[in-house]
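Schema walkthrough. Field components (list of strings):
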Amino acid sequence: MPDTQALVNDFLNKLKKRKIEGSQATAKQTAELLRSVISQTRMPYTNQAAALIHSVKAVGERLIAANPVGCMHVMAELAVGNVVRRVLHIIREEDLSLTTAAMAGLNLSAESDDEDDTDRDNHPALSAAAIAAASRSTLRPPSLQTLLEDVPDSAAVPHTSSSGGDSEGKSKSADKSSRSRKLKHDVIEAVNELIQDISTCHELIAEQAVEHIHQNEVILTLGSSRTVLEFLCAAKEKKRSFRVFVAEGAPRYQGHLLAKELVTRGLQTTLITDSAVFAMISRVNMVIVGAHAVMANGGVIAPVGLNMVALAAQKHAVPFVVLAGSHKLCPLYPHHPEVLLNELRSPSELLDFGEFSDCLDFGSGIGAPLLHVVNPTFDYVPPKLVSLFITDTGGHNPSYMYRLIADYYSADDLVLERRTTSGN
Amino acid sequence: MWWRSASFILDRQQEQNTSFPPNPESLLLSSPPPSMADSLQNPKPDISAYYQTRAAHHAVVTSDWLAQAQAAVSLQTNDDVSSGSDGRVALTGGGTGVDNKTFSVIDEFNSWRKQPDLAEAVAAIRALAAVIRASQATTMMELEIELKKASDSLKAWDATSISLTAGCDLFMRYVTRTSALEYEDFNSARYRLIERAEKFGEISYKARRIIAMLSQDFIFDGCTILVHGFSRVVLEVLKTAAQNKKHFRVFCTEGRPDRTGLRLSNELAKLDVPVKLLIDSAVAYTMDEVDMVLVGADGVVESGGIINMMGTYQIALVSHSMNKPVYVAAESYKFARLYPLDQKDMGPALRTIDFGVPIPSKVEVEKSARDYTPPQYLTLLFTDLGVLTPSVVSDELIQLYL
Amino acid sequence: MGAQKKGATARVSEDPEELARHPLQAILLADSFTTKFRPITLERPKVLLPLVNIPMINYTLAWLESAGVEEVFVFCCAHSKQVIDYLESSEWSSQPNFSVTTIESHNSISAGDALRLIYERNVIHGDFVLISGDTVSNMSLTQALQEHKDRRKKDANAIMTMVVKQSKPSPITQQSRLGTDELFMAINPVTKQLLYYEDKAEYSKGFISLDKTLIADNPSVILHNDKQDCYIDICSQEVLSLFTDNFDYQHLRRHFVKGLLVDDIMGYKIFTHEIHSSYAARIDNFRSYDTISKDIIQRWTYPFVPDVLCGSSAIKVERQGTYRASDVTLSRSAQLGSFTFIGQGTKIGNDTKISHSVIGERCTIGSNVTIEGSYIWNNVTIEDGCQLRNAIVCDGVILKSGAVLQPGVILSFKVVVGQEFVVPAYSKVSLLQQPTQQDSDEELEYADSTSGTGELRSDKLNGDIAPDLSETASELGTGGVGYIWTVFEGAYDEEWRHSVAPIPTDKLVKLMLDKDEDEELLTQDGNVISASRELKADSDGNGSEDDDNEDSRDDYVSFEKEVEATFLRAVHENVKVDLAVLEVNALR
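Field assembly_structure (string):
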């Protein structure tokens, strides 16, 4: 599939050159890329879902392994990974619904058809319902219900479908090919919906602003997030009058940009340093922030400084609200979040190298620098500090996140790399 | 007033009901437990047989002894099965048949349970499988009723074992749900049920492997793990981590009165993992050196909390106050439909404690063997269904019982 | 009409869009034409030496790609085959929108030769980036490029833009960081034009001379000693033709830049672009190798740091700046200090202490080893009880048990150090004999004609070394294999200047004292800058420098006479002013 290779390379290039800004754009373009991959995949007669899954997984591995360089490093990897897993889940779901529908149809037609009795006798234990049940269990994550169930002939599920199809002769072949086209068609429709969701996530979240921001409230935020900006402006549109405290978000000082934006949109804004958050939090009614990623336990990977704001909010009983589009939902658990998912950037954002170049060289004894400048990009906010998540599907508790994850992702896709990680 | 509390009254009644004083239990397993000749009742109702067995298992033994014990037990089991089946073949069905069947269920169960490597629930399900095998029923409804009776008697025999209850319930649900399948006739259904039940042992073993795999990422290099109680799942987790050459060290609590810590430290020392033994009271003292707490569970209740060996609640409280994560490793068949609101809400599970010196009879001893840890003190549950937060447990149970 | 059209077409050809349609090109000189990295560079080209476990050229290529360069011409001379093989087998040969072409030569001895060759190949169209393969940077080129292009439009003589970096204005910074001497630059702060460049200032003289016309032409001049030359240049096509015209232009700075600055016949101008928070540095000698490795470990070059550059093998960055690749077998009692990098597949034994070092891949380090501030490359075996301090150990070296490496030692490829042997400080050890023809001026950057092929000259080392090992008591103790290169007397004092080891404290103190003395001398003089003749006359009063002044005064006097004569003749013969000026200038 030369075209897909070119598309993937092109996308990777754009990621590397930082031409794509923001996780939303990354997610959207990943989804579009996967849509093209799917539409170009040639579908065999049997096991179509597996073919689709295989091709999507291959592309997904490449995207994640390519490790785009730049400030988007961790964020892009998470956004890309999430979208790939969503698409895989969509494929499985569509296949499942088609299979059950087809099986039901097959069963009805088979009963009326005498030729098929012999086939049915060969598989006495597997009627349509059993096949459906078995396929349902293979495609669903393990649960208590399925604990005792065996999957006796998981290979037999598509096998019987194909053999059933063949045995029914040419009359069904047209139906078969239409069925294969239907799977692709359904999957592409679902992916289109996904792209639509990703593009409109800001609007969907902003729509809920009016329920949460009331008159004469004081809102605190840190750094700059597009979702938060839209959220606040949507509330402003609905004629709520409120004030915003913006913490500047050192060392990148993106809070300055946000403050300017808010002022141009007509909101009363106060700019404070990060260290002043604890001092000002008692005057604040609510803290609203954006996130880079939401982990499966409800924890949040957010720009550095937000853990401190969350702790301040908890101490003063101020609700801490996190806005996140559903493409930021990640099915992984943070094992050791401060170290693993953090990206240490160049210390030149803190200190000008020239001024301190002597402190950084000849020290005592081994010539080791005595001054070490660390610049982490992310913070991990544990779930117990978060009061509410607002996603494009509505407001949720942190302990509810596992449900959304179960809806959006399948357990088989958690590990996208095919090589085993030993010793990790 | 504490002496009017419900649980206290229950305790008093229990004590008054005992027919004979409990024997001080010797910790070394010298002979198999006495056969329950003609008695449907658990001879020592006030002593939790579950915890007795665990104590027997947790004696300081070597793995060679274990292997021998296992071999001996399997021989005996085969004898039991053959004798049991012979006995049943001779029956013609009728009133006495019922007695013999329930008799053999508990026997079955006990014989399975002797194997130290086998989980309670697995033993229960295997016993129920034996019931099916011996059953004379001709329709699913009859079979279900028999199974229900057998499972009830098992549960009544030892009311304190949660995984036993959970295992029985799980199997019953499975039977009820799948009995409505139209496609199969009775014989194939029976065959299927027996086969699934016997395969359940494999599932249990696989579950441990899955849990060990899932928890690997949470053990990072240089971490210190505090372990309480002796859980085979936790041991599997630590074994896998040691095999993956992770550098970590383990603090074991002594685990009075079962001395679980001694056994665990034995096993870990064999794996070259640095182990430190603490007395139970030293947990808060060392908690600041600890990076995470890892425990098993006897049962996981609907709220997401766990029921585990006495002392778990205490450790969870200390960890929570010091912001250390508490991880629970439990297989999914331990999820039970209980919702205890406080410590005394569960049925009492008592266990004799040997203090080494005679205690005057006026002095009361708290003999409870287990406690309940509420879900807010737990961070994550590692199960074969995946890594779960405590709030997921109720979701799973609802899905099962809907 | 026709003339207008012609003017229009002429303007169109200078249209910026037309120029921009050419892809941005770069010339990467993969040969430094120096011998500073011997004995290592006898066997491997400098650009393939690992910098924190990644060959140097990767940093440069990655930076060029991110800066928007689309075509790179890699010029290789020494060990060119190795460079070409490496580039072909790496990912750089298959990047979209980024083509890497190698240009090979076998008889170039300087950067000038290289540029002349490239000019002959006629592959450069438009402005290009000139860089050497041992430069590490993370700056963004867009602004510098834009400024360069704007200047070109206004003044066609602005042919080069040099990138300079602000560094601390301490007199010893240059020495302690990069091992080079202090650099003086005079820059016009308004136009950013470079007016004076001196990197080999003679301290004995105690002053530098600036031409008076500099001050005449430029309303303000700032003399800097706090700038670091990054050796990143944005050049226009004229640069190449200039090299071709002047065959004696060899060194980029010493000849080309200085030549241009002095030459006002053609009137070419060099400009500077200053960077502040971005990072750029060139690895010139062992000291800068050490410094820049440390900067990379401290992530000043983000995003060109090891864990981001090699995405295939996951490298974990831990607290305290420790980098650990996958598959590292650490014994429990080993202690990894801060700022250490451990490569893939390395095994480290019990009670070993490693700090501030870089360890390569597949190394085996025994027990009770102490490694501090050292750079150990791939496949090295270090047996028990060794001690290494501030050393560079190349691929395949074996250190037998108990060996000690004193600070500043360089062990080249496959050397074996015998048991309990102490390698003296600042020594260079190699399997190859020291080349007998040694340039007396080791600073001269002419590559040795034999540098491309290093031969094993000794019979002992032919074929299998193993059976001879135990009997051979070579210079490196029992079981050792290799030769310690002798250092010439004159050069020994200077070894510490550009060695891997940090400057010993006593020398550091001496350096600072020297600078203080120099400053005092200068302030006594009353003027640091002596702009040509008048001020020199003032310093006559200083007795210490009489002799020099005498000679120069003689020259100066005769020169003055010549000028007078020429001037008078011009007046008499009614020669045009411009021509007269030319004549006078030519006398210089």
